[in-house]
Each structure stands twice: as structure tokens, then as C-alpha cells.
Recover the amino acids of this structure.
């Protein structure tokens, strides 16, 4: 669960749940935060439950953020867009001491993620029980991630582009149907009463207004790459449960930042790879012959989404425009051979980055292994943490 301040989503300081994509892997479990340019409170790992956390005697509580059609970042064709059975998917970990050559060796497997999740949930529940609250443990659930991978439109899929474009109009219509269903009470959770301040403080710590500096030594705050600050309350049940799994306040954050830095370094190498640059030049030339002047594959996606949200395009116009643009986009993607170029370039980039940062990579893998081992012990004991 993430405690983030969305002014138009449930009110200031309300507990809302967000669903990150699985490509962040174990890092999502380790560092569950939304950074909105100000202070954000670290919350329990964000997996959407069928029913939310609950106070003793209270009904389920669920927040329903407004839905906006999703325009995935088109900016870098360098980012992998491949399904799970590729080098980008989590692979079984190397044994300690073996040289790490691909980032996939640092991503948690489903089994590891589930153990980390279950140990944290058990710890939170035990801590909350000792403080007099009933916390409903949430099961690990990656079904939404798997469904996303199954239905995600690939940048080289010309047939899908001819039918759905980038999927923007489809997502808009789906969101409208879901809103109608919700209005008519079909298949949606009805928000229950909000959790009390005492329950929330036990789970997450005292409220900290957005932008306010952490007030005492009971809080920990860290500046993160890209701006913003992550803060957490040391004595919250979430923090105690997380620390029992990852080791201490900083461990999860350091692990996540290390992985993020490695991924950023790979992307930087890809951006300067001669073969990638040549492939993009070929794609741009192909697009120009079709009447488009975008810098990157899928750049049209954001342009069209923005036009729709600005009221410049209706759904029908959006559908026609995105099918035309996406068809040209994917056709040129195939013609320029970008999929194969990126796969080869990514392998080169990861090997180069990891050769230069082998100590960091080994430390990261060892830390993950240690966290998983602690999680297994905690699960076997049937208890995660102490509230006092």
C-alpha cells in the first residue's frame, strides 16, 4: 500500500493503492513509494487486494482513482518491450561469486517476489495485532501483470496496429464501461469507511504534510535520483516488517537505487550505440516517407493522447489517427530491424555496464538472496515482526 497525496483521488492523506508494472521486479517490493516531487511516505508493497486493509470491526476500504487513458512512454525504443521469455525477464540467480553479465540475473523470480511479499504481509499483520488492530493480509497476486504482458501491444506488431492502433481508444472505451459499471454497482468494490487515524498511524506512522521536513529522529528521509524525497517512520508496522526482511531502514532503498542506476547506465549506453542510432535513422526515414516526423518509435502515442485529453480529438478521431500512425510506426519498426538491433545492443550494453560495476551487481544479488533467506525463515516461523 502506498500512502501518497493525490488531491483529487480520495482526499489528502487518504490511503490509496497503486499497481506498478512487474518489470521493476523485486525492487517494487523493496521500495514501494510514489515520488511526486515532494515528501512521500514509504508504504507497504502495492499489490491490489480484493479487499483492503481493515480495522477491527470495520468493513473493507478501497480507493478508486480516476482513470486516464494510458500513454506509455514512447521516448526510448531502447527500453525492452519483450515478453517474459527474453533476457529482460527474471532469470534464476547466479551462484555467489559467479560473474553477472545480464540485468535479468538481478531481477527476482516470481517465487522470490512471493516470499518477500508474504513475509512482509505476515510481519505487518503480527505487528498490527500487537497494537490492537486487525490487518487483513493480502495474497501475492501478479495476475494483472501477466494480463498486461498478454495484451500489451508490441511496437513491431503491424497486425495489431492496423486493428487497435496504440490501444488508446480501446483503453478509453474500457475506462468508460468500467465507470458505467461502477455507477450501476456492477462488479466493483464499494468503498467502506476510511481507516481511523490510529490505525493509519500504527501502519504507516503519523501524517506528514506534503513538502514538510520530517520532524524528528523518529523519521528517516533520503533524497532520491531524479528529485524528490522519500521519508518513512521508523516505528510503523510497515517499516518494522520491511526491516525484518531487508535488514534495516536503508537496505531496501539502497538496493532499489542501485538497480535503477544500473538500468539507467544501460539506457545511456544504448542511446549512444551506433547500431541503434542507425536503426532509428532508418525508422525516421521510413516514417518521413509516410508523412510523419517523429523522433522516436511510439512518440505519436503521447501526442495523440495529449490531443485527446485537451479535447482536440474525439474517440472516433483518436481511433482513426492512432491506427494510421501506429501502422506506419510498426511497419517502419520492422523495416528498420529495430527489434533485432536493440536485442544485440542491449546485450552489449549490459555486459559493458556490469563489467564496470561488477562489485555493485554482486552486492545487489547477495542482498536479494539474503532478503529472500530471511523471508523464508520468517514465513517458517509464522511471524514477521514485533510491534514493541
Amino acid at each position: 500500500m502506498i500512502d501518497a497525496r493525490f488531491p483529487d483521488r480520495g482526499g489528502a492523506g487518504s490511503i490509496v493503492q497503486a499497481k506498478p508494472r512487474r518489470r521493476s521486479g523485486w525492487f517494487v517490493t523493496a521500495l514501494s513509494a510514489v515520488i511526486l516531487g515532494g515528501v512521500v511516505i514509504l508504504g507497504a508493497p502495492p499489490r491490489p487486494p480484493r479487499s483492503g486493509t481493515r480495522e477491527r470491526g470495520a468493513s473493507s476500504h478501497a480507493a478508486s482513482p480516476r482513470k486516464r487513458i494510458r500513454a506509455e512512454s514512447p521516448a526510448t525504443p531502447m527500453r525492452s518491450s519483450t515478453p517474459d521469455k527474453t533476457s529482460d525477464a527474471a532469470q534464476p540467480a547466479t551462484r555467489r561469486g559467479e560473474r553477472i553479465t545480464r540485468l535479468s540475473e538481478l531481477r527476482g523470480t516470481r517465487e522470490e517476489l512471493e516470499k518477500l511479499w508474504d513475509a512482509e504481509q505476515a510481519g505487518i499483520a503480527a505487528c498490527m495485532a500487537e497494537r490492537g488492530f486487525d490487518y487483513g493480509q493480502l495474497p501475492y497476486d501478479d495476475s494483472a501483470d501477466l494480463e498486461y504482458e498478454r495484451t500489451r501491444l508490441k511496437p513491431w506488431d503491424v497486425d495489431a496496429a492496423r486493428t487497435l492502433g496504440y490501444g488508446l481508444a480501446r483503453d478509453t472505451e474500457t475506462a468508460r464501461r468500467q465507470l458505467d459499471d461502477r455507477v450501476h454497482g456492477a462488479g466493483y468494490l464499494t468503498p467502506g469507511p476510511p481507516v481511523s487515524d490510529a490505525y493509519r498511524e500504527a501502519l504507516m506512522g503519523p501524517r506528514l504534510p506534503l513538502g514538510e521536513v520530517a520532524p524528528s529522529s523518529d523519521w528517516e528521509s533520503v533524497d532520491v535520483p531524479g528529485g524528490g524525497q522519500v521519508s518513512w517512520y521508523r516505528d510503523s508496522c510497515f517499516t518494522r516488517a520491511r526491516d525484518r526482511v531487508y535488514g534495516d531502514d536503508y537496505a531496501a532503498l539502497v538496493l532499489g537505487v542501485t538497480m535503477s542506476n544500473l538500468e539507467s547506465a544501460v539506457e545511456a549506453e544504448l542511446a549512444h550505440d551506433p547500431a541503434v542510432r542507425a536503426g532509428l535513422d532508418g525508422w525516421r526515414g521510413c516514417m518521413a516517407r509516410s508523412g510523419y516526423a517523429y523522433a522516436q518509435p511510439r512518440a505519436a502515442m503521447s501526442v495523440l493522447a495529449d490531443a485527446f485529453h485537451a479535447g482536440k480529438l474525439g474517440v472516433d478521431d483518436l481511433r482513426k489517427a492512432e491506427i494510421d500512425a501506429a501502422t506506419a510506426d510498426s511497419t517502419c519498426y520492422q523495416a528498420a530491424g529495430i527489434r533485432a538491433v536493440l536485442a544485440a545492443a542491449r546485450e552489449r550494453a549490459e555486459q559493458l555496464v556490469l563489467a564496470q560495476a561488477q562489485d555493485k551487481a554482486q552486492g545487489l544479488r547477495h542482498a536479494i538472496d539474503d532478503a529472500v533467506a530471511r523471508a523464508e525463515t520468517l514465513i517458517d516461523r509464522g511471524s514477521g515482526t514485533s510491534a514493541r
